[in-house]
Specification:
Helix content is about 20%, strand content about 35%. The chain is of the alpha+beta class and about 400 residues long.
Length: about 400
């Protein structure tokens, strides 16, 4: 990549919101915790101080933009996670309402940047991986690469490895006819971000489909799942993740009303079984899910991802179903974690907490053991995840970057 090339994809316009008070509909919006609705329909739920948005909170705009994180006197400041209306997702540091510090950006076109930022642009040491897998690693200034520490390096994706991963990730929080959830859509985006990263296999746009909220209708979920799973051959892996409401025998898409437009477990199992994939994994963070069955950069990005795909060699495959709760239990969200409890520990495990043998590869057995014990402990055994199916316990699900 030419070091003088300006990455125009990084020019993200982050306007300061005009917080003209319109109405506090719940709690104390001057000194405490409350919910405030603005004239344009935007909503903030979280902490206030001296009449200002100040502390931890969630801001949602009508166009689908959502910020979860810390505020100082009405400005995003500190750690946060911002989903943009175009589908871009940033997780990291903010200062005075701008991206500033260290963070990661996943672009809706499949591109990814991890490193230092200043005034909404890459500035300092960082790495950019394009949707096609090309890597630009080095130092950046105001969005331009000024020095390079790689020479034409390409990040490996499943398409260049013996095993290719195809994943469908669903998260529904804003239901049409059901009670809303707080974090299900964010949980799905976190899983998607992991799968796009090197630790999750560096999945490209052709390998990963993410549907959240209004996109996640019953018809669309079934269609994209069938399409994705049909791509897999007999040495590939397919993954289905769902976060949202569930009832006995089904997951609930955004247009479900409790009677119609449900994704039955039977339908999903049929889609999984009809795929030629050798490795099959379903992960669900939903009530009654268990009823489905009686930075430090390591320099050589290419070798790092190759190690993950190489770990599939000698594994016999099979189908594993990691469910957030037993069939009779509910699945909990936790405001302190800003996530579903199950999905929080799932991501923690994938990022390395589950690597009990310290070989840098997280396999399905390690992940399930970590998630099951952590969730049960955190909820005082109110929620108990389960893993079912016939599978090789050494099936790899992630690689750790220490």
């Amino acid at each position: 990549m030419n070091g003088s090339l300006l990455l125009t994809a990084f020019v993200v316009v982050l306007p300061l919101w005009t917080f003209a008070q319109q109405g506090c509909i719940l709690g104390n919006c001057r000194q405490g915790y409350g919910t405030f609705i603005f004239e344009d329909g935007s909503r903030y739920t979280g902490e206030f101080q001296d009449g200002y948005i100040h502390g931890l909170g969630i801001f949602e705009a009508p166009d689908g933009e959502k910020y979860t994180g810390n505020w100082i006197r009405q400005k995003r400041w500190g750690k946060g996670r911002r989903l943009y209306a175009n589908g871009d997702l940033y997780v990291g540091d903010f200062k005075e309402d701008k991206i500033f510090g260290f963070g990661e950006m996943w672009f809706h076109d499949g591109g990814y940047y991890r490193g230092k930022w200043e005034d909404n642009l890459p500035h300092g040491e960082g790495i950019f991986v394009s949707a096609t897998g090309s890597v630009a690693k080095g130092d950046w200034k105001a969005g331009k690469q000024i020095t390079s520490t790689n020479s034409g390096e390409t990040a490996l994706e499943g398409g260049t490895n013996p095993t290719t991963i195809y994943a469908v990730v669903i998260g529904v929080a804003d239901y049409q006819s059901m009670p809303a959830l707080q974090f299900a859509d964010d949980d799905a985006l976190q899983i998607g971000a992991f799968l796009r990263s090197a630790s999750g296999g560096a999945l490209g746009a052709h390998q990963l489909t993410i549907l959240t909220d209004a996109e996640a209708t019953a018809q669309r979920i079934e269609a994209v799942t069938a399409e994705a799973f049909a791509k897999a051959d007999d040495n590939d892996m397919i993954l289905f993740y769902f976060s949202g409401h569930g009832v006995e025998g089904a997951f609930l898409p955004v247009d479900a009303d409790g009677y119609q437009n449900m994704l039955s477990h039977t339908t999903l199992k049929s889609l999984m079984l009809s795929s030629r994939a050798k490795y099959k994994l379903v992960i669900a963070d939903a009530c009654h899910a268990g009823g489905m069955l009686p930075y430090r950069d390591h320099g050589d990005q290419q070798a790092f991802i190759k190690k993950f795909y190489g770990s599939f060699e000698g594994v016999t495959g099979g189908m594993a179903l990691l469910m957030s709760s037993k069939g009779t239990e509910i699945s909990l969200e936790d405001g302190r974690l800003r996530s579903g409890v199950f999905s929080f520990f799932l991501v923690e495990g994938l990022r390395g907490a589950a690597d009990t043998d310290h070989n840098t590869i997280v396999n399905i057995a390690e992940l399930s053991n970590f998630v099951c014990s952590s969730v049960a402990k955190h909820t005082n055994r109110i929620q108990n995840p389960v893993i079912l199916g016939k599978f090789d316990p050494l099936m790899p699900v992630g690689i750790v970057r220490w």
